[in-house]
Amino acid sequence: MSIDLPGFADPVLGSQACFRAVLDAMARPGTFRAAGAGLSPPAPLVPAAAAVLLTLVDAETPFYLAPGFAPAQDWIGFHCGALPVEFPGVAAFVLADTLPDLAALAAGSDESPDASATVILQVAALGSGRRLRLSGPGLRVPVSVDVTGLPDNFPVLWAANHALYPRGIDILLCSGTTLAALPRSVRVEG
What we know:
There is one protein chain. This protein is an alpha/beta fold. The chain has one domain (2-183): 3-Layer(aba) Sandwich (Rossmann fold), CATH 3.40.50.11310. It is built from 4 helices and 9 strands. The chain has helices at 11-27, 47-56, 73-80, 154-162, and strands at 33-34, 63-65, 93-96, 118-122, 125-135, 143-148, 170-175, 178-182, 187-189. The strands form 2 sheets. The protein has a 6-stranded mixed β-sheet, covered by helices on one side. Strands 6-5-9 form a 3-stranded antiparallel β-sheet, with helices on one face. It is globular. The mean pLDDT is 95.
């Protein structure tokens, strides 16, 4: 049974380390940060995504679990104390293995842009695959990031999301024990 698989060996230190990794990744878009080393979550959940969930999701956090992650639902519920919501549009966090329709997610409002969703997107690889050029806040000069697992039209989809700024969706890309962030403020070119 998946709940038998442990979470962080030290929940406080594990959460603090992952929180720092997420903050660093958001402040420096396109940079890779380590997260989830030592975690063995149930498949198909990768350690980095599991660490983000253990750090950011609790019983009061509405999160959506894409259908492919159903085998990990009991583990997430046990370790985070959270049950997924039925519809992604009401979630603060969306765990997915394919890019969801960003326009269908909570984008916040001009008065409360913080009421938007963050997508925790598991991708096949970070550091190889399609090259994206990132520019904007947090980047002195444009940087490139290689990602395997985003749709071909991702730059177009992201441009629509970026145009909503300060509203919009943030994405945490997770692969293995590595994560990277695409905050809504960054511009992406293919």
